[in-house]
Amino acid sequence: MATNNSNKKLVPEAQSALNKFKYEVASEVGVTLKDGYNGDISARDAGRIGGNMVRKMIQQVENNMK
Question: For the segment 32-53, what is each residue's pLDDT rounded down to a tens digit?
Answer without folding.
Answer: 999 889 999 999 999 999 999 9
